[in-house]
Specification:
- With 250 residues, the protein is mainly α.
- The chain has 3 domains: 133 residues, no CATH class; 65 residues; 31 residues, no CATH class.
- 72% of the residues lie in helices and 0% in strands.
- Helix 2 runs antiparallel to helix 3 and helix 5 packs antiparallel against helix 6.
- The longest helix has 30 residues.
- The radius of gyration is 27 Å and the shape is elongated.
Length: 250
């Protein structure tokens, strides 16, 4: 990701606003229900289900927002997939709270835990993919390695869910090491992106701004003429009457 992010396309901007609006409304309603329950006297089973729903909506709303951060960027398809996965995982989680399917419904629970794991992984991956346009080699390598580790952790988590395999001590150790390295990468890569900033070029300049090379040339020309840079460019942007002492051409 360069210092000046590419402009977001109109459709992506509208879609992002719609997603944010839906999240705010849904979470607001869930939060209102939780407050009403907490203000009541009896915290029975329905009350705890309402509170659990509020927590689930809040947690998965954060996941959707993380994924929506990629909308309008080159890898926005990953963000769209992540948002859909988070919404489906939230729906199944709420069904699990209210309908309480029997534990014998293995497919339901296997699918639920798989989507929850995928939602968590895709949320972090989408945030890291905001750095996908960085040109520094260290950032690029760190990003690729971290995303691979995310995929490895996801596979290691999902495998015993669908196969009912215990895995054993070695399996648990490998999963733990991969998880630690993935978490480390999720911290180190953004820090590297701050420390190893991409060099600014004319192409990277924001609309209406000057590139460093242009600024340097203006300052050099102003020094050659014996005036300040402000005095050099003043005749170009102000009426001549306001700057009667504009520098003359050599």
């Amino acid at each position: 990701m360069t210092d000046a992010a590419p402009p977001i396309r109109p459709r992506a901007s509208v879609l992002r606003r719609v997603i944010v609006g839906v999240i705010v409304v849904s979470f607001g309603l869930a939060a209102l229900g939780g407050i009403v329950v907490l203000l009541g006297a009896d915290l029975g089973d329905p009350a705890w289900k309402v509170l659990a729903t509020t927590a689930l909506v809040g947690a998965f709303s954060v996941a959707v927002l993380c994924c929506a951060s990629l909308l309008g960027r080159r890898l926005q398809v990953v963000g769209l997939v992540g948002a859909v996965v988070a919404v489906v995982a939230a729906a199944l989680s709420i069904i699990a709270v209210w309908a309480q399917p029997h534990w014998d419904a293995e497919v339901f629970w296997d699918l639920l835990w798989t989507l929850v794991a995928a939602s968590v992984g895709l949320s972090f991956a989408c945030l890291l993919l905001l750095l996908a346009d960085r040109r520094r080699t260290g950032v690029r390598i760190g990003l690729i390695v971290t995303l691979v580790l995310f995929a490895v952790v996801f596979v290691l988590v999902v495998y015993p869910i669908w196969t009912d395999a215990a895995g054993g001590e070695v399996y648990s150790r490998v999963l733990g090491i991969a998880s630690i390295l993935a978490a480390l990468g999720a911290i180190v890569v953004p820090v590297l992106s701050l420390l190893l900033r991409d060099p600014r070029t004319t192409k990277d300049a924001r609309p209406g701004s000057l590139s460093p090379s242009t600024i340097a040339r203006l300052e050099a020309e102003a020094a050659r003429r014996g005036v300040t840079a402000d005095e050099l460019v003043a005749p170009l942007i102000w009426p001549a009457a306001e700057h009667p002492q504009a520098p003359a051409n050599p």
